[in-house]
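Let's sit down with a protein and look at its sequence and fold side by side. We need material for that, and I hope you will provide a protein of your own picking. Once you have written the record down, we can walk along the chain together.

***
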Amino acid sequence: MSNIPHDPIMSPAPVKTAAEADALIAQVMGVMAELADVVQQETALVRAGRVSAASRFAEPKGDLSRRYVAGTIRLKASKPQLAHVARDRLATLQQRHESLRMLLQTNLTVLATAHAVSEGIVRGVSNEMGRRSTPQTYGASGRANAPTRGSGVPLAVSRTL
């Protein structure tokens, strides 16, 4: 007997009956619908600039993502059985998966844009603070000296706003 623990998420048991196949597909479709709803709400809030309100979706989104991955792993393990008992439902599942993929791509783009904008703002503020704290002197060429890299002023950001 093996002492290696069995991880049901990484090596799930494949479905054996048509009823199990229907239940698995229904479960994955339900998780996909919930995840799509959460992602749409988060995307809308981030687009509106309400990042702190959108942050409340982090935990449910993570939980739904884990459930979705576990379901897809079980679907992959059951692919031969599903091809025999639920061929028509697999096409619907693939269509829903594709629409979820497009929603997630949009969500990632919006989040990346918000991240880039906020990073640009923080860098701009930091550079301006560094420029103002550096003595305004002229160099040997007769031009104003640029702030040195070490002349940066620490910057604190409040996350409670």
User: Anything to note?
Assistant: The chain has five helices and no strands.
